[in-house]
Amino acid sequence: xxxxxxxxxxxxxxxxxxxxxxxxxxxxxxxxxxxxxxxxxxxxxxxxxxxxxxxxxxxxxxxxxxxxxxxxxxxxxxxxxxxxxxxxxxxxxxxx
Length: 96
Ligand code: HEC
What we know:
The chain has 96 residues and is an all-alpha fold.
């Protein structure tokens, strides 16, 4: 019984984390990258399934990564915590 509860608790927590990434993406990223990360007309490439998204996003935040339009991305990441960015990167990497 306890074991079952524990499994449920763990599943619940990971489901919440995944939901956060999806929620933030929908609110702050989808307008440019598309609801499923496949829109390439603004950013030049689709980001769906990019498993390197975390280092890119932290790089945009710190200023160590980016192309000609990196100011756009820096502005988009303003106000997001490291936890938010991790959840977002995981979500972006999971998009197909
Ligand atoms: C206002 C439009 C806009 C919004 C909103 C936006 N982006 Fe971007 N994104 C861009 C542009 C433009 C680039 C290319 C920037 C450059 O020159 O480096 C980019 C680049 C990226 C890249 C790197 C692509 C690559 O491989 O070079 C990732 C990852 C990314 N965005 C994720 C996100 C996430 C996650 C969010 C939500 C927090 C977000 N973007 C919100 C416009 C946007």
